[in-house]
Amino acid sequence: MVSAVNERVGYWLDLADYDIETAMVMLNGGRYLYVGFMCHQTIEKAIKAIIARDCGKDEIPPKIHDLSRLAVRAKLIDAMSEEQQDFMEELNPLNIEARYPEYKEYIAKTLTPERCKPIIAETEKLLCWIKAQL
User: Fold this and answer.
1) How many domains is the chain built from?
2) Which of 15, 43, 63, 133 has the most CB atoms within 10 Å of its CB?
3) 59-77 tens-digit pLDDT
């Protein structure tokens, strides 16, 4: 029998896996703005899986999107390398700024295929690391 904790964790990990796959589809389709957005979403949801594992049965992960704040809440930040923390800081603006018209054009210009491919690769590495913490 699957426990409620495992169901909550599985829910967030399924979403994270779906989002990284979506980032790859966006890359292949030339939708570079959404590559960054989906990579952010991938890491956000993976961290929320850790939080879901550790919170009470009636609690839900906080409705915040700042990856560093979530990593602190998940008690992951101290175990993360400086490179992982820096990468999360690189992803943070890709979530919020991709949603607002005044930022979309600027962000879209910075997200080229040459930039998006390493973002996806780093997201996959960080996703694997977060899963290993479970």
Assistant:
1) 1
2) 43
3) 889 999 999 999 999 999 9
